[in-house]
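Hi V.,

Quick status before I head out on leave. The structure for the redesign project is tokenized and pasted below; the design run finished overnight.
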């Protein structure tokens, strides 16, 4: 029995252990925020924003950001139908409605033309999720935001280290959010970050994250009902170590993708994550989309990978398909045909930092065997 190939696993070195140990031993009393403050300062420097607030999750960061923008009941927020649910749920937490639009067939990120078409008088924001490390069309989205007076929010949970024409993902919107969940490129176990250049928004989120207590106000006195999505000092210590290693963590993701590309890049019928000129893709999840003509299905893919002990992941289901957000599957299929079609014939490939060249070859062979088998079927049918 060969060893199972996991789809993701964090890269943890002596540095993370050292910082976490120090935080556990000494990070109390007057030192109880030391790693948190350092993590926030260094993360802001890394993405090039004025402010950063470390949180217990990306979900929490998004929730507070939407609340701080004053988004609430009766409002609409536009986002891609292809998304992790954590981007959409916070919209419902504040009482607003997610409006799903289709994705572009090559980047798998939201289609700016459809974003513009979905704007109504109730629209209050656009959320650009950089899927699997791929980049949204930021120039076009920011231009739409400017023309309609709508804030563009960046969900950069999957794209730490990606860059759009010199800008770090997460730094161009009114605010950006990041996730440090254990599956992400850098991790604190669980954790997230809120970043912004807007001082007033920063102040509101700081107060929201402290149960509505205004800095310098009376002790144990809240001015309004807030939240509590703070990260712990021990988690932040691990984050500081990961951030010191971020260039290497992203470089290794890119190296793994390059190996996949070398094996699969030239094969007819396969599309991998794109990297447009002027952008840098941090390739959180190397992903293969199979051509429709091959007739490959999601279940067929999963079965082929699991037979070889490979823990591949399904492409995100369209959120409308869950029917949890007030949109039926029938409407979703009509509005977002790419989101539905691509999800049915795509798969995320394993990409943890310590995986070997042999592991990558094993994964590629499954993909190549699948293509060959389906091509043979096609040839039989044609002759
Ligand atoms: C992982 C992820 C999140 C949620 O992150 P948590 O830290 O688990 O809350 C949000 N959005 C996207 C796109 C994600 O991939």
């Amino acid at each position: 029995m060969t060893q199972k190939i996991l789809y993701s696993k964090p890269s943890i070195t002596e540095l993370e252990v050292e910082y976490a140990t120090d935080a556990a031993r000494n990070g109390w009393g007057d030192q109880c925020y030391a790693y948190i403050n350092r993590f926030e300062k260094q993360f802001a420097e890394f993405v090039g924003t004025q402010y950063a607030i470390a949180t217990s999750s990306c979900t929490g960061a998004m929730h507070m950001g939407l609340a701080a923008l004053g988004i609430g009941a009766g409002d609409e927020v536009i986002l891609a139908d292809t998304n992790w649910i954590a981007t959409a749920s916070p919209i419902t937490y504040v009482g607003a409605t997610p409006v799903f639009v289709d994705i572009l067939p090559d980047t798998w990120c939201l289609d700016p033309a459809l974003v513009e078409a979905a704007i109504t008088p109730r629209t209050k924001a656009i959320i650009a999720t950089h899927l699997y490390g791929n980049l949204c069309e930021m120039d076009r989205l920011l231009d739409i935001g400017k023309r309609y007076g709508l804030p563009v929010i960046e969900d950069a949970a999957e794209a730490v280290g990606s860059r759009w024409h010199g800008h770090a993902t997460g730094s161009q919107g009114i605010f950006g959010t990041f996730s440090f969940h254990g599956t992400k490129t850098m991790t604190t176990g669980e954790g997230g970050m809120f970043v912004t250049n807007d001082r007033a928004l920063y102040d509101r989120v700081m107060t929201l994250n402290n149960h509505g207590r205004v800095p310098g106000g009376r002790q144990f006195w809240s001015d309004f009902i807030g939240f509590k999505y703070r990260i712990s000092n021990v988690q932040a210590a691990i984050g500081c170590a990961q951030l010191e290693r971020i260039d290497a963590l992203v470089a290794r993701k890119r190296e793994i993708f390059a190996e996949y590309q070398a094996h699969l890049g030239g094969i007819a019928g396969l599309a991998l994550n794109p990297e447009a000129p002027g952008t840098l893709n941090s390739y959180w999840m190397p992903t293969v989309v199979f051509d429709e003509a091959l007739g490959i299905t999601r279940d067929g893919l999963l079965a082929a990978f699991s037979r070889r002990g490979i823990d591949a992941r399904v492409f995100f289901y369209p959120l409308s398909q869950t029917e949890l957000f007030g949109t039926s599957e029938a409407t979703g299929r009509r509005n977002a045909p790419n989101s539905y079609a691509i999800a049915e014939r795509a798969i995320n490939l394993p990409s943890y930092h310590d995986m070997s060249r042999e592991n990558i070859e094993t994964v590629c062979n499954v993909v190549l065997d699948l293509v060959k088998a389906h091509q043979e079927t096609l040839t039989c049918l044609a002759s």
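Above is the designed sequence. The two ends are 39 Å apart (CA to CA).

G. will cover questions while I'm gone.

Best,
W.
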